[in-house]
Amino acid sequence: MSEFTLPLYRWNELPQSERDARMHRVATSRRMFDPELREGVLEIVEDVRRNGDEAVLRATEKFDGVKLDAARLRVSDAEFEAAEDAISGELKEAIDAAIERVSRFSEHLIAADAHDWEAETEPGVVLGERFSPIASVGLSVPGGKGSFPSVLVQLGSPAKVAGVPEIVVSVPPLKDGGVDPAVTFVAKRLGITNLFRSNGPAGVAAMAFGTETFPQALKVVGPGSPPVAAAQIECQRFGTVIQMLLGPSESLVIADASADPDLVAADILNEAEHGKDSVSVLVAWDEDLLKAVAAAVAARIERLPEPRQGFARAALGENGGAYLVDGPAQAAEVADAFAAEHMQLDVSSETAEELLPQLHHAGEILIGNHATVSAANYLLGVPAALPTGRFARVTSGVTVDAFLKRTSTARVDEAAMKRLAPAVIALAEHEGFPAHAETIRARLG
After folding, report:
1. How far is CA 62 from the centre of its chain?
2. Which of 342, 350, 361, 438 is catalytic?
3. Which of 109-123, 241-255, 347-361, 423-437 has the lowest mean pLDDT?
4. What DSSP string runs through 284-300?
5. How many CB atoms lie within 10 A of CB 32?
6. CATH superfamily of 8-31+247-393
């Protein structure tokens, strides 16, 4: 295989059409919303909706190469017990540390932002909100390309802190039909007993509709491949709530002359190794730095094993690359246009303070040389299930907020009701609702 060359694009020399295509991730979004893929996924979703477990088993055999019977869809008590002995003590400690930190972040969110409140907004009118957990959620944990217990940590911990009564988890089976013991161990630690093995899109549908074995979930969340994302979109048409859009991994790193080129190379390879549909981008205004990073990437990428090396070549080559801009302000413009899942600032503290007020669209912003995407993905406690495909412009990562709902409350005394009456009656009459107006007139006597 030839030596990898990191593509370099001079932002000011790119025609607007190419800027738009690269910022909009046209190459990867075509895969996500490919009509043929959509039709294939819709066929799976409809099959599960109509035929339940039978369809789940059919899809798991066809697409995962694993033949099961309905009794094996649910992970057994024996498998839960065996999981603890199947992984190392070091991994168990790492999982416990991750659960603790993600839970702590969630608890801070609830304390700061998600508690019941009331306030007198005018004399005699007291308004407020009550927070309560969603009754049931389905968590889709990816598989196939590797083992991802960290995803269940990131999804399950805030769901537990939110107090969701019923949590359902679907994960693709291993080739021998088993379930990754590390994922099973996370479920056990979180007290989640509804753990199922299934093909990815079929599992999404099974949680959305319910089957003979899968409990139905009101909301389904979780990252995954384009087919998994497409399945969530299709299930949304039937009333299931989803968290848009957790598709292929993507990252954008902004670097300045203070950065170590070899560390920057390591950082842009972090998300690039996820898959051939991942996207990894570097933005800088120092051409010498970009050339040094390109040399370091060429050396580092050769040390990656397959298939990770092939994934990284696609993510940094065909899908991503390096962009030379004319300064921090333009770097921020490019970053906002890209709206990355993960944004990392490999810059001096002074440059970071200059950039932060100009950055508005990202799933997360990791500031400084030591706040790596890997640390955030695994252990810092910030959410790592983040919007992709530019959905960071309109939505946020999966935190405890994703598992809570708000119910507004209002108290009105008689004096306030009489004061509000003329305006309520006027609006009701204008809109042609006499019964609305009558609820007020009846109280005026």
Report:
1. 27
2. 342
3. 241-255
4. ES-HHHHHHHHHHHHHH
5. 21
6. Nitrogenase molybdenum iron protein domain (3.40.50.1980)
To the query of whether residue 341 is one of the catalytic residues in this protein, the response is yes
Catalytic residue among 79, 271, 273, 341: 341
Confirm whether 342 is a catalytic residue.
Answer: yes
Query: By C-alpha distance, which of 433, 223, 262 is closest to 342?
Result: 223
pLDDT of residue 34: 80
> Using CA atoms in the order 146, 150, 155, 161, what is the torsion angle rounded to 10 degrees?
160
- Cis bond upstream, residue 172 (ω within 30): no
Residue 29's pLDDT band (boundaries 50, 70, 90)?
low
Among 36, 240, 37, 27, smallest CA distance to 140 is for 240
Q: How far apart are CA 241 and CA 233, in angstroms?
A: 9
Q: Where in the chain is the domain with CATH 3.40.50.1980?
A: 8-31+247-393, 35-116+131-242
Question: What CA–CA distance (Å, rounded) separates 213 from 107?
Answer: 32
Where does 35-116+131-242 sit in CATH, by number?
Answer: 3.40.50.1980
Nearest partner of 225 among 202, 205, 249, 252, judged by Cα:
249
Closest CA to 198 of 176, 168, 172: 172
Q: Residue 88 is encoded by which pair of tokens? A: 């190392």
**Poorest-confidence range of 30-44, 223-237, 357-371?**
30-44
